[in-house]
Design brief:
globular, 75% helix, mainly alpha, 11 helices
């Protein structure tokens, strides 16, 4: 029997195809998981409808309608939930179950695995923005159209910062610890991190502290883009600084098994 046909059929697919296949797998895993779907889509939509259709939270909107005021922050919340909480929990359990170690030995490799995860997160975020944006438009949202491209820059910066944070804790802590910590951090940042409610509306020292958090910076970026058509440079600098520090830490401390 000739070995040539066997070698031809067993050759790995080109690297871009392997990465895209992994990205598609990652996206499907998030969107098919009920708990992940609750965090990434249901919760942000519930927050959006609740804030715009009730007066439980009285807040000055500086002349803007409630939907124009809250929609950018809710999109920022959705981006944070996918790139941080969802990714941290999924990666931590993949690591505990040995999936990361096994995948790293395949032709996909460690670099391809991480690239696939990053592209999968971006694909889910596209779904989130489309769905949440459609709900917001149905509620009367009027974003500044010239700020849409700028908002994409803010989303990419926020995704980089929160994905770095997710990999840092997923690669250093036990899976059960990551599950508790990621959900706790999500709640704390959603309530007092300046992401849905602007930092300037928070009480006391939080009004200053939130501006220095990645959550507050991401919220300010999307509010600046979708309400005024501009990108706050100070918030961009905060996100870049967080990304650099967290990515450095993840690169140094991440354990694959």
């Amino acid at each position: 029997m000739s070995a040539a046909p066997l070698a031809a059929t067993s050759a790995p697919a080109p690297a871009p195809r392997r990465v895209l296949a992994q990205a598609g797998f990652e996206m499907k895993m998030i969107l098919r998981n009920g708990e992940q779907l609750l965090i990434t889509l249901v919760m942000p939509i519930f927050v959006l409808v609740g804030l715009t259709r009730s007066s439980v939270i009285e807040i000055g909107t500086a002349g803007a309608t409630r939907i124009d005021f809250f929609a950018p922050g809710v999109i920022a919340l959705a981006v944070m939930s996918t790139s941080f909480t969802s990714q941290a929990i999924a990666t931590a359990f993949d690591r505990r179950n040995g999936v990361l170690r096994l995948m790293a030995t395949t032709p996909l490799g460690r670099g391809g695995l991480l690239a696939g995860k990053a592209l999968g997160v971006l694909a889910v975020e596209v779904v989130q923005v489309v769905v949440i944006g459609a709900v917001a438009l149905g509620l009367g949202w009027h974003p500044v159209t010239s700020g849409v491209v700028v908002a994409v820059i803010g989303i990419l910066l926020g995704t980089a910062a929160f994905t770095s944070l997710a990999l840092l804790i997923a690669g250093t802590l036990r899976a059960e610890g990551v599950l508790a910590l990621a959900n706790l951090v999500l709640v704390l940042l959603a309530v007092g991190g300046g992401i849905v409610v602007p930092a300037s509306r928070l009480p006391g020292v939080l009004a200053h502290l939130a501006l220095l958090l990645p959550s507050g910076a991401l919220g300010e970026c999307l509010r600046g883009a979708l309400m005024h058509g501009s990108l706050p440079l100070a918030s961009v600098a905060v996100l870049v600084a967080w990304t650099a520090g967290l990515a450095w830490g993840a690169g140094r401390l991440f354990r694959w098994h």
